[in-house]
Amino acid sequence: MANEEHLKILKQGVKAWNNWRRENPGEIPDLYGADLRGLDLTYIHFMRTNLGECDLSGTILRRAFMVGAYLHGALLLETDLEGADMRGCHLSEAKLAGAKMAGAVINKALVVGADFSGCDMESVMMLGTNLENSDFTDAIMTDVDLTDANLKGIKTDGVKGYRFRK
User: Fold this and answer.
1) Backbone phi, then psi, for 92, in 5-degree steps?
2) Which of these, 100, 108, 121, 122, lies nearest to 150 by C-alpha position?
3) CB-based contacts of 20, cutoff 8 Å, min separation 6
4) Per-residue confidence in pLDDT tens, the chain, 166 aa
5) How far is Cα of residue 46 from the mean position of the Cα atoms in its chain?
6) Residue 13 is inside which H or E element, if any?
7) Which of 17, 26, 96, 136 could form a disulfide with 76 if both were Cys (CB 3.0 to 4.6 A apart)?
8) What Cα–Cα distance (Å) separates residue 16 from each residue in 7, 67, 75?
9) Which residues contact 8 (CB under 8 A, 6 or more apart)?
């Protein structure tokens, strides 16, 4: 379960959270399983934050700094992740259906079995990312960079803007 003190700081807003992060650089925030639906967390600093099993559905995470964040099994349905920096994240089994992800960076991440169905992923970078068994059904993938990504077992029915080799 989430650390109550960390939740209390987050509820004070992005400015308070980011200030706390600057003042406590060694702290690893634990928000595991928290209900964060619908919040505006634009520019939030979630580096190395435990967000596993969190419900972030409908949350605005534009330009969020989420390098190395743990999001295993998180719900990110219809979430706005445009321009988010998610390098090295653990997104396995995460549900991102319908998310807006244009311009996000998800390089060198572990994203096994994630659901990206219906996502707007225009210009997303996923260099060296393990996307094994992930679902991209009906996703918009114009200008997506999948250099050195593991694409084994992915679902690509109805993908727009990207041609996968058969």
Assistant:
1) -60, 140
2) 108
3) 9
4) 999 999 999 999 999 999 999 999 999 999 999 999 999 999 999 999 999 999 999 999 999 999 999 999 999 999 999 999 999 999 999 999 999 999 999 999 999 999 999 999 999 999 999 999 999 999 999 999 999 999 999 999 999 998 776 5
5) 11
6) none
7) 96
8) 12, 19, 24
9) none
* Separation of alpha carbons 133 and 141, rounded Å: 17
User: What DSSP string runs through 65-94?
Assistant: B-TT-B-TT-B-TT-B-TT-B-TT-B-TT-
Let me know the angle formed at the C-alpha of 57 by 52 and 59, rounded to the nearest 5 degrees. 100
Distance separating alpha carbons of residues 54 and 26, to the nearest angstrom: 22
Joined tokens for residue 17: 């959270």
Dist CA 94 CA 83 (whole Å):
18
Considering only CA atoms, which of 131, 74, 84 is closest in space to residue 108? Answer: 131
Q: DSSP secondary structure string, 109-154?
A: -B-TT-B-TT-B-TT-B-TT-B-TT-B-TT-B-TT-B-TT-B-TT-
- Structural domains of the chain ordered from first start: 1-166 (2.160.20.80)
The C-alpha atoms of residue 61 and residue 39 are separated, in whole angstroms, by 9
Q: What's the residue count for the chain? A: 166
With beta carbons less than 8 A apart as the criterion, state whether 74 and 58 touch.
no
